[in-house]
Amino acid sequence: MPRKLTKTRAELEVLFMNELRKDPACRVVGAIAISHGVGRLWHVALERDGSRIQPECRHRIWEITETLCSQFDLARAS
Length: 78
Prior knowledge:
Layout: E1 5-7, H1 9-20, E2 29-38, E3 41-48, H2 55-71, E4 72-74
Parallel strand pairs: 1-4
Antiparallel strand pairs: 2-3
Helix pairs in contact: 1-2
């Protein structure tokens, strides 16, 4: 199995937000922050504007996290 590329938190957050902005259900998410890994995934914190996050957006966040975690490792000192 090929090694995954390593990205900093900032790089991953940009990639994540670019994907998230494509989904109209996620327009209330203003920013995200990626922190330490939890198992094979990262912890993703959201900043939202206004109403609660719709279930469709929660699912999309999970999908994006799964996809990016499968492609990239989080740099240790990022």
